[in-house]
Every structure is written in structure tokens, then in C-alpha cells.
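Sample intake sheet
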Amino acid sequence: MTRSPLSTGSWTGPRERPLLKKWAGKLTGKVERIFIGLDTSAYTTSLALVDQAERLLWEKRLPLPVGKGGLGLRQSEAVFTHLQNLPRLWAEGASWLKLATPAGVAAATQPRPLEGSYMPVFKVSEAFGLFLAQSLGLFFMPRSHQEGHVAAGLWSAGLAPGRYLVLHLSGGTTEILAVEEQNCGALQIERVGGSADLNAGQFIDRIGVALGFPFPAGPHLESLAREAAQVTEAGTVTLPLAVKGSAVSFSGPESHARRLLARGCPGAKLARAVETCIADSLSKAARAVPGFAGRYQAVLAVGGVAANAFIRARLAEGLEPLPFYCAEPRFSGDNAVGLAVLAARSGRRGGG
């Protein structure tokens, strides 16, 4: 039983934090200004609109289609699909601009907030964002995909500005981050641990596809893992942890999982072992970060893997005594809501 407060739509344990209502129900209060968020990742085309109070007005995502047995798209294929998707999303979302004055645009222009961090897919959201800003006379704020994830997590968990240990867990990233959010909404991000080889989401997708599921395989593997308790053969299935300090590796555990699968290991047991390996590896690595129990106010998990209910609950137990929060499952995967929120916070301090 966990004693850590969770912000999750699927967790029903004790001391559950009430869900925020920023994105639910009828709007109360006047919508005066609208801020736009854009993200074109390797997996999803995303557009979001929030108002000056950071209330989510509208958001939509279009997953990039991947053929059966595939593990993602080439960058050129993803760019082409984004170029088709963004005008479709804008045609739907632009009607909200009749409600209030558009004020600013934030777009993901790179994977991480580091010099030299680059992926061609993000040039689409950058170009479209610049075009909107210049055409409508708005300020333009270039930000990274990672900053969008972190902002979405802080926003949906209702966390005040402070210093947090953030686990960014996705198909493209598995990093442990020291994040300080200042009152103006600016984010200072420093990598303090994580994986140097296979990412948590890649681990899940590779084993999920090997089990016969389509890409991305996360929801399918999670559903299968729930059946593990009903499978009596094979006994307890475990995967080795490869953790050294705050560094984790999932390439070894993945190879071990494939060997178990080849020997006939039940899929449900293997799926649960993958989830357990990921959660326990990250808990061990995070606890090795200098100042774990004294420097940070809480741990926050963001990214698509953080939507997995079992991994969330096991992380909460493994990271005690620090409070543990997650982006609400709806805002864990790739989205543009965090970027729109960053634009709104920038707008309050003058834009840009």
C-alpha cells in the first residue's frame, strides 16, 4: 500500500489527490486571451489551446500510423505525415479564436533543451508556429519537446513552482531530471540520470511487438500484464536489473526477455516482468541521485510510459519517502498542452 499522493485517473488507492478541473466542465469566467501549443514528435501531431488562466479550451492529437510489425516511422515519413495532419488540426481548433484574442504560440523545436539537440520532425511544428505567429501578430516561443512534457506534468498534477526530480519516460527518452520551475514559469532542467541505451518505451514496444501487438504496444502490453495473476504456469517471472548509480540499462533485460519468450514464457507473465523491471530499475536509479531525500520536494513522472497504472503505483512505493506525482494519464503521452501552458505563463510576464 502506498502512502504517496498520486494524481491519476486510474489509481484508486488511499489518499488519492482529487483530479484537477482545469480541463473539465463548463468554463466559468471570461476567456480573454488564447495561447497555442504545437508539437510534432516522432509519434504524434498535437495542437492545444489554453486561455490566460491556463484552462484547457481544446486539444487534439493525431497518432502517426505505423505498419504492422513496425517499430516507428522514418523521419522523412513522419515529417510528411505531420505536414498533412497540422492543417487538419488547425481547421478544427481555429474556431476557438472567435472566442477571444490569440496572444502567443509555443512550439516544440527540438527534442531537449540542449545545444545540438535536433530531430527533423520538430521543424514542422517550428515552421507552422512561426507562420501562425507572424501571420496573426503573436509572440513566438521556441521550446523543446521535453519542456512540454514536464510542463504538462506540473500543470496536470497541480504542483506549485519548486524543485522536483522528474522521470521522463517514453519511447524516445528515459531520463532522470532535476527540474526547477520558477514563479514566472521558466524551467531549468538538468539531466542527473537515466538510460544510455534502450529507453523504457522502446523496451515495452519491442517486447510488445514480439508478442504480436501493433506499435506502439504500451496499452496492449499493460492490458496483457493484468492477466498475469490468472496464469499459473511458469511461476514467478523476473528480469534482471541493470542499474549503476543513477544510470540504468534496458538492453540486457530486453535480451533476457526475448530468451524467455523463445522458451515459451507466458505472455502475461513476461509483460508484468517488463513493467516490474522498468519501475524497479528507475526507483533504484532515482534513489541514487545525490540529495534524493533532501534536495527535492517530490518526484514527478511524465511521458507515455508514465501512463501505465502498474508502473505508476510501483514507482510510488519504491520512491518513498518523497511524495510521488504523475501527469494525469491523458497528459502523459505526447501532447501540446504543456507548450500552450508555457506560452500562457510567458504571456503573463510579457511574452517571448
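Comment: The chain has two domains: 33-158+334-348, 195-329. DSSP finds ten helices and twelve strands in the chain.
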